[in-house]
């Protein structure tokens, strides 16, 4: 049945544009076109387990982290981006599973934080990159998280830089609407302790939220799901009262099992949270950050770089110590 739905959807989007046009560019539901979420066979946790089968921590990391569906992050390290996203979405499609992808290459990325600084060389380079990202996915079902931290990271930016960033995000959403009709795109809305709900609703709207399926919360953070859900609902109340619409939201639960101790960069004593699933107070609870991957050269990850897999941190996160 799911394969039939996929074939029907593909046939629909092959019709002439005048007939295919609909009020929502993302009317297709990728969760109904697939049989569950895709487990990344090349995640950092999977690769570490495969390379260290005799390590005493490997069995626990394999059972509790490596085989949980979670997002793959794409950036400058991904090579030719359309080829990379096409290969990943294609592998998931062949398995009849729904892939989670993160686009993380915006110009002036992490401009104020710095631990993950980088990104495309210019706004025009980013426009080309994200167009290829969307084109690689094409008609396959997918979920994309668009540029984590991009709307919370305003503290040291000028208004001209903010306007530039919002333009890049709006342009990215237009590319997904045009090229990837079976993809749900979530703009990132930071977390409840970064910006108040009214401020975040305004930023989301000004960056083009109407074109997106929804927004994401708590990426790479540790804040409890209930607090994120309350914040997401508050953002929606602001969107409704100010702009006349609301959007679904998702929460990153990969590392919030023990909640937050107020630190965001490799804090000790954290724990994995609820595995990827539909519902849970949000549209979906997702593992977006891989548990055990470093936030940067800080906390219990001192001496590491952002994204580096730290097996001892991953192992301790399974048990919450």
TrEMBL record:
Residues 1-27 form the signal peptide. GO terms for molecular function: hydrolase activity. The keyword Ligase does not apply. Transmembrane segments: none annotated. The keyword Phosphoprotein does not apply. Its EC number is 3.2.1.-. Keywords: Carbohydrate metabolism, Cellulose degradation, Disulfide bond, Glycosidase, Hydrolase, Polysaccharide degradation, Signal. It comes from the Bacteria. Belongs to the glycosyl hydrolase family 6. This is Glucanase.
